[in-house]
């Protein structure tokens, strides 16, 4: 008996050593002036099971949260200086049941609220949408099931650069559901997983793929991937997970990052970062401070990971103080080096006894990072971390400055993270349009430096998908044509000829890919019908008057 015990002990130590072998150093910032807390209008003491969600759009802040069986939305139009509160309604759930929720403000101005309900006989995901602030909420059920075998829920949501809303969720019945919101309707897919206690991370980026990270409770860490035009997910095991919580982000160089917890013994779980490079290789490492102590999540095993368009990584988590492990504090970390080194800024507040499994929600605008959480008095709290500058960077074109990312960072500065590129980068992830023949099918004459591009599917919506290139640079990537007109303003050189090329990603049910396209300058609008196929591109020439 004793030799067998020793054998398994050695195996465990070897596994733990291999898991924690790779580390990323964390430097603790001491500047207290970086922290500024917003006090909301009406203080509300929340229960253990109440949760919240944060969305930031420029100067607008949205805080969606629950109080018992009531849902509230708080909104600020001036970066949090003043707030107004709206009672959304009642929702059904068991007592002391924690149900995640999400608020999403779309680029089209639509406001989405997603939350679960649990009646005891049925579990369902509910979607509330308001297309205009003057209108009422429209409510619909995304998915419901009477298979009540487990009360564990999880939900992630993200809008892509084409205005499509993607969500991944599960209701504890052993299925992962992925749904896409298009044309005011939900299109759902699902696939089977081994365990019901799992956490999800979601990312849809610029590589035409949708990624879902799946973390099992003391089990495997998986990645499910599908191309946006396909309906099948590829499920790949990439490592181990110490808890059913994870967060996923796609980096500006096309890689992936997953934040979770390492699968080691003990109550306090070190933060584990799993990183995939462009070649598909995975590496796992944990975060350590200058004293070689692990940044551990303790009882609060959940973190929120985001990446902005400059390439900076943002991470918010409840951490165990490595000096006094009985205390927990909210910590914000960021990395300009792709995760190889980090800076940390902690609130230094004791929140011991805080309810388990809550999530600090993180979002940012052009100048600040905002983190919403419940403080030790169990009130909704918002803290801002100044120091980012994303002005001039398009929110849907992830990019980085390699020279800046690779430099050694020794202190926090108020300077720009990256310089604003003068031109769009060449889309490496997009098929080369020059491999197909190009036929110029129309001409548009203008003296303007800006032209409004409007396109939709011609006649019947049959699944056509196009990418649009201006002089070889991608200005619209893999957009699924709809009956509703898509509008985007593009910048051209009015002193020379410009080529606007339509590259067919798919031809739909009725080939070829046919686009009803309109161009408008300051004086006139002109309509065109452009056809593209998998062998030939359709193009329009934009030129100045002769």
Describe the structure in your own words:
This protein has 546 residues and is mainly beta. It folds into 2 domains: 21-406, 6 Propeller (Neuraminidase); 433-543, Sandwich (Immunoglobulin-like), CATH 2.60.40. Helices cover 4% and strands 49% of the residues. It contains 2 helices and 38 strands. It has a 9-stranded mixed β-sheet with strand order 19-20-21-22-1-26-25-24-23, with no helix packed on it. Strand 3 and strand 4 (60-67) form a beta hairpin. It is globular, with a radius of gyration of 25 Å. The relative contact order is 0.10. Mean pLDDT is 78; it is low at 7-20 and 398-429.
- Beta-strand percentage range: over 45%
Number of DSSP-assigned strands: 38
What's the number of helices?
A: 2
First and last CA, distance: 93 Å
CATH class of the largest domain: Mainly Beta
- CATH architecture of the largest domain, by name, is 6 Propeller
Low-confidence stretches: 7-20, 398-429
The fourth-level CATH homologous superfamily of the largest domain is Fucose-specific lectin
Roughly what percent helix? under 10%
Tell me briefly what this model is.
With 546 residues, this protein is mostly beta strands. It is built from 2 helices and 38 strands.
């Amino acid at each position: 008996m004793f030799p067998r015990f020793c054998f398994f002990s050695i195996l465990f130590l070897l596994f733990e050593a291999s898991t924690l072998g790779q580390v990323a150093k964390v430097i603790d910032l001491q500047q207290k002036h970086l922290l500024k807390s917003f006090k909301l209008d009406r203080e509300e003491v929340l229960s253990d099971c109440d949760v919240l969600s944060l969305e930031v759009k420029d100067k607008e802040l949205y805080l969606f949260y629950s109080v018992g069986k009531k849902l509230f939305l708080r909104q600020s139009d001036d970066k949090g200086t003043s707030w107004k509160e709206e009672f959304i309604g009642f929702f059904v759930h068991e007592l002391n049941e924690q149900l995640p929720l999400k608020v999403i403000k779309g680029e089209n101005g639509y406001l989405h609220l997603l939350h679960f309900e649990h009646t005891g006989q049925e579990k369902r995901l509910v979607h509330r949408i308001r297309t205009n602030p003057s209108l009422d909420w429209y409510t619909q059920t995304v998915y419901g099931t009477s298979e009540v075998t487990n009360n564990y829920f999880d939900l992630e949501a993200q809008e892509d650069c084409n205005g499509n809303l993607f969500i991944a969720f599960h209701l504890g019945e052993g299925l992962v559901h992925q749904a896409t919101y298009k044309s005011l309707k939900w299109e759902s897919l699902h696939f089977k997983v081994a365990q019901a206690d799992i956490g999800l991370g979601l990312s849809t980026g610029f590589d035409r793929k949708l990624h879902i990270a799946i973390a099992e409770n003391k089990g495997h860490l998986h990645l499910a991937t599908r191309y946006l035009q396909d309906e099948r997910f590829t499920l790949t095991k990439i490592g181990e997970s110490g808890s059913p919580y994870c967060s996923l982000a796609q980096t500006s160089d096309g890689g992936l990052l997953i934040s979770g917890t390492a699968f080691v013994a003990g109550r306090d779980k070190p933060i584990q970062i799993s990183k995939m490079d462009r070649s598909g290789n995975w590496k796992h490492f944990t975060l350590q401070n200058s004293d070689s102590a692990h940044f551990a999540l303790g009882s609060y095993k959940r973190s929120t990971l985001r990446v902005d368009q400059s390439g900076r990584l943002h991470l918010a988590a409840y951490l165990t103080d490595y000096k006094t492990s009985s205390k927990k504090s909210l910590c914000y970390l960021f990395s300009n080096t792709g995760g190889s080194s980090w800076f940390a800024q902690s609130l230094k507040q004791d929140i011991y006894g805080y309810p388990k499994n809550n999530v600090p929600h993180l979002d940012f605008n052009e100048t600040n990072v905002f983190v919403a959480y419940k403080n030790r008095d169990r009130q909704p709290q918002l803290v801002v971390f100044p120091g980012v500058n994303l002005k001039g960077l398009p929110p849907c074109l992830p990019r980085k400055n390699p020279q800046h990312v690779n430099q050694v960072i020794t202190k926090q500065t108020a300077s720009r993270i990256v310089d604003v590129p003068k031109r769009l980068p060449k889309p490496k992830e997009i098929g080369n349009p020059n491999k197909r023949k190009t036929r110029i099918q129309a001409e548009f004459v203008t003296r303007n430096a800006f032209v409004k591009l409007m396109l939709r599917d011609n006649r019947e919506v049959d699944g056509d998908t196009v990418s649009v290139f201006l002089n070889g640079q991608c200005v619209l990537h893999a957009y699924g044509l709809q009956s509703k007109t898509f509008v985007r303003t593009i910048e051209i050189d009015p002193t020379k000829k410009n080529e606007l090329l339509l590259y067919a990603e798919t031809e739909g049910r009725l080939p070829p890919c046919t686009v009803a396209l309109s161009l408008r300058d300051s004086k006139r609008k002109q309509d065109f019908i452009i056809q593209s196929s998998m062998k030939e591109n359709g193009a329009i020439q934009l030129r100045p008057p002769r």
